[in-house]
Amino acid sequence: MKKADFITLVIGVVGGLLFAVGMCMCLLPEWGVFSQGVVAAVIGAGILLALAVVSGVRAGKQFRINWKFAGKVLFGTVGALVLGLGMCMIMVWNMMLQGILVGIVGMVLLLCLIPMCMGLK
Length: 121
Description:
By secondary structure, the chain is mainly α. It has 5 helices and no strands. It is flat and about 50 Å long. It starts with a helix and ends with a helix.
């Protein structure tokens, strides 16, 4: 493994952990650190976004927005958020039936990513 790839891996793990811990801080009311969680999640997301741009530039690629890929990322993000909302409805807000239904919708959205990315043959 090259040194640059290792550094990219470490920065990606740090960004992912900051984002994940920030989201946990936001979603667990027992911790009482919602504002700090938002800050941690935004910093983690910023690190991951900057890492994606820097990795592309380092690879010699010109930074151009691929709208097809951006749409897939947006669709996956919405699917993950809907699934997470369903989980929050069950675990935090005690809305069992509605949470299950919203979670199923999120799973279906995420499953739609497979033919969207790989295509049907």
